[in-house]
Amino acid sequence: MDRINQMLEYALHIGSFHISVGALLGFMGTLLLVWLAGHYLRRAFDRYAATRESNLRPAIYTVSRITYYLLVLAGLMVALSLLGIPVSRFAVFAGAIGVGLGFGLQAIFSNFISGLILLFDGSLKVGDFVELESGVTGEVSDINIRATRITTNDNIEILVPNAEFVTGRVVNWTHHEASRRLRISFGVAYGCDKERVKQAALEAAAEVPATLTTDGPRAPDVWLVEFGDSALIFELVVWLTADATKRPGSVKAAYNWALESALARYQLEIPFPQRDLHLRSVLGNTTLESLALSHKAGSGQRQAATASDAPAHEQPARNETADELAAHAANTRPASAHDA
Q1: Domain residue limits at 95
Q2: Separation CA 20–CA 37 (nearest Å)
Q3: What CATH number corresponds to the domain at position 225?
Q4: Bridge partners of residue 143, in order along the sequence
Q5: Angle (CA) 204 209 213, round 5°
């Protein structure tokens, strides 16, 4: 026992600091306990959030994060005190190196403070579907100290610095309400009955499960929005369910599919772009004169071709590919006894 005590009391000299082996072991043990406690604490919060309503989960997530940060801070202070470094002395030391590291760690500090702002502000929560200024869209999966994890609909995880959510423009599609309105543009030929177009589009909206409701103030509607060059441009306006809001690409494809089927069922034409060409003159001649010259030149060329291409016996067209294969087979055939 005395030998163990002597080993624990053995001091390591680092400058003016004297750190014993026992204090170092206590420091490492405290950090390990804090890490284990934080790990199980987060798991407990996750299990608790899974049993609650979806609208309460972001608040539970915020509380779990703040509790985890406070636990780590308290454990670090206790570990430093066991190591023999007073908190007041550590504060002086931190202030001394803070100026030097401030410029190098400015981005990290900015992201950390931005992460705290996001947790307390409530403008961004886990489960929100967001669109960043860079064009990235996806669901918020996790808000960490340095970055926020965004999971796209292609199951790609993107780490976005927290400062980008605070200083940049962010479109939160599900901030106050999960449902949103989608507009699908389509065109039909001029002369089609507008009422039939509307009926076909409404039937298409009813066939897609992403439609929130088919009656009431948020029922689907059809708008005539533009007179195009070769088509009447309509928009199918629908309110989406909460799940469909987070899948805009596949949802729009489903509505386009249903619209094409409904328009074909009602025999409504989807036109192709058309252009009318009006020929005024060619090489200084008027339209009629140009057509007459073109007709005369074409007749002369056809007569000359007929005279020159009139052999006694017309040769059939040859299959050059088959001839090449036959020649290749003859060249690769093994020599017979007669050839030898």
Answers
A1: 2-104
A2: 26
A3: 3.30.70.100
A4: 148
A5: 80
